[in-house]
Design a protein that fits this description.
Glucose Oxidase, domain 1, about 35% helix, 7 helices, single chain, eight-stranded mixed beta sheet, about 25% strand, alpha/beta
Length: about 220
């Protein structure tokens, strides 16, 4: 809720999460008893500077055999419907061969206002993605096209991302530590708690740098 008691606008929610860090988000979720919201550490950004926060827009697919027809119609529909302030989330069903995301998809997504992509699978066109500055987190890199090798089977439905259930609308927070999933229905409350935690850690850090004893400072703030 904002100061007037109304639900926060999505862009504000995402911007404020983007100013935080995944470890603090994970700590707050842990304290709430949600201990399986941190995505498998094998999914990482293309660079240590990559950061993203936005509402998940999910899709899922599975490895295909060569004789099957292509899935271009569904891929085009997915990209056409990506909403503003979203993060594209791709569940490849464990495909370890092809690239499931690339430059043209990133360009189309950015044009729709998408903030980044998290791929439980592969990505390609890395030099172009780095040039664009579009944050992409993925499990592997591959020059191999997924066309006729992997088929998108649906989008907008719950998927698995590195062992974590993700629904369209859940908040994705990614940085150099990894990726965390915040359930949509508690996102505003979690945001406030993470901001409070970050403030406490800043104060704790200052006292420690000033020579304070860790035991005394820790007992005062109870964070970390």
């Amino acid at each position: 809720m904002n100061e007037t008691g109304e639900s926060m606008e999505l862009h504000e929610l995402c911007d404020r999460f983007a100013a935080l860090y995944s470890a603090a988000v994970g700590d707050v979720l842990d304290k709430r008893g949600l201990r399986n919201q941190i995505v498998d550490g094998g999914i990482q950004g293309l660079t240590l500077e990559d950061r993203v926060a936005g509402a998940a827009f999910t899709c899922k697919g599975a490895p295909a055999t060569e004789p099957e027809g292509d899935d271009w119609d569904m891929r085009k529909q997915f990209l056409d419907e990506i909403p503003e302030h979203s993060v594209a989330v791709v569940d490849s069903s464990g495909d370890q061969y092809a690239a499931h995301w690339g430059e043209l998809m990133s360009t189309a997504a950015r044009g729709r206002g998408c903030r980044g992509a998290v791929i439980d699978g592969g990505t390609r066109d890395v030099p172009k993605l780095l040039e664009m500055g579009f944050p992409v987190f993925s499990r592997h890199r591959s020059p191999v096209s997924s066309i006729l090798r992997w088929r998108m089977t649906g989008f907008g439905h719950p998927v698995m991302l590195g062992g974590v259930l993700v629904r369209t609308g859940d908040i994705i927070v990614g940085d150099s530590d990894g990726v965390v999933v915040v359930p949509a229905e508690i996102a505003e409350a979690v945001l406030g708690e993470v901001e409070s935690l970050a403030e406490a850690e800043t104060a704790m850090r200052a006292e420690l740098l000033a020579g304070g004893k860790f035991s005394t400072v820790y007992d005062r703030y109870q964070v970390g």
